[in-house]
Amino acid sequence: MLDRTVEPSPNQSPAQVGVSADAGMAGVAPDAKLHRRFPTIPFLREGARRNLPRFAFEYMDGGAGEDTGIDRNWSALDAVELIPRYGVSTSLPGTECELLGRRYAAPVGVAPMGSPSLGWPGADQYLARAAQKARVPYVLGTVGGMTIERAGEIAPDVLWFQLYRLAKDEHRLGLDLARRAEAAGAHALVLTLDVPVRTTRPREVHSGITTPFRPDLRMLLGILTSPGWLGAMLKNGQPRFASLRGYAREGAGINEIANFVRGEMRGGFTWEEVARYRERWKRPLAVKGVLHPADAERAVSLGVDGIIVSNHGGRQIDALPAAIDALPAVVSATAGRATVMMDSGVRSGVDVVRALALGASAAFAGKAFLWGLGALGERGPGHVIDLLIAEMRATLGQVGVRSLAELRDVTVRHPGALQL
Ligand SMILES: Cc1cc2nc3c(=O)[nH]c(=O)nc-3n(C[C@H](O)[C@H](O)[C@H](O)COP(=O)(O)O)c2cc1C
Questions:
Q1: 310 near 162, Cβ under 8 Å?
Q2: 62 lines ligand 1 (CB under 6 A)
Q3: What is the pLDDT of residues 213-239, one digit of tens each?
Q4: Distance CA 343, CA 352 (A)
Q5: How many CB atoms lie within 10 A of CB 150?
Q6: What's the first-to-final CA gap in the chain, in angstroms?
Q7: Which is nearest to 41 in space by CA: 404, 413, 381?
Q8: Contact in structure between 135 and 105 (CB atoms under 8 Å)
Q9: Residue 41, ligand 1, Cβ within 6 A
Q10: 40 φ/ψ sector (left φ>0, alpha ψ -120 to 50, else beta)
């Protein structure tokens, strides 16, 4: 296993988001006490590692295979250099932006996560609340622990909904979930393309996680010695398939529901199916998991509005390219005809700016938000958003742009850019 302990790197220096004399320049100063304990997202990761039962940390943190996909995402982002120009700007630009026709406070968002409650019980509602408060996009996952309707109540201005392929009986479930998402006010529907097969995450397996969730003695011991996680579970109950449980047999227990969900989910969407959803879903439609520019072109030709370049955070298979490396090719293939966004490996506002400078309109994070929950409980997601925005603003100031739009003109060195 690779050692990935916190190594404050130049791009994650606490001074960047400083609450000291530099705070004025950094703009948004995160809560001082919190900032001292967790000055960057990697510190939250270490906090989560300390606080959580082992299986919960392994669930949120582990990747496919040997975790080399995760490492590649990180090192590829680290390798992107922004070449600053000085002498032009004297103030920090704002981070307000428009994404798929809606205004948000910043081009950062919460990526969809299935069963995040395994990482922190009640996770979905805390993530949704923090996103609503900060006015940044929140994508509820198909397999989330909160119903779409509840998400619509908590996050009415920022909700998007992610859908896996639920194709049985002519997509009965998938189409019904999309209908419910629309009724609940979800602004965008995100079809995940990059799970054509189920793969294993060895760290999850080794920590004893099974579907359905059946904690063994070792896991129970872990829960009992992790008071924060235990308290969250007593408050919020066991992880469950909130939006999907209504489709299973009435009175079905958690295990039966889990098996039902497993049986319904199969493979990745075909392009014909994407076209079908395009026809039905009248609001912005995005596809997630694109890495090949030809797939981006195909999506655009079907009228898809948004493309999320992603390798699923390194959770599917180790051999995929880093999303940041695939991003420029996708941006140039779509040539302004779709909103290109990215996720996979984002651990700082510097990373967000790197993605924007390479043509993304927004960057999402997954693991970072769960580390926040693991380290800080319900206050975690808000702290992650604060850090991302503060670091973003400091980076924008450092490279010398006067607006997000000007980022496209920044000179970038990107040694890993995918050449096909
Ligand atoms: C615990 C966990 C569960 C996830 N579940 C889903 C999911 O249900 N659907 C989906 O499209 N992506 C899922 N993802 C992938 C995220 O949406 C996102 O692509 C990824 O986390 C981004 O990489 P990062 O974790 O390095 O930020 C999951 C990620 C994590 C960490």
A1: no
A2: no
A3: 788 999 999 999 999 999 999 999 876
A4: 9
A5: 18
A6: 31
A7: 381
A8: yes
A9: no
A10: beta
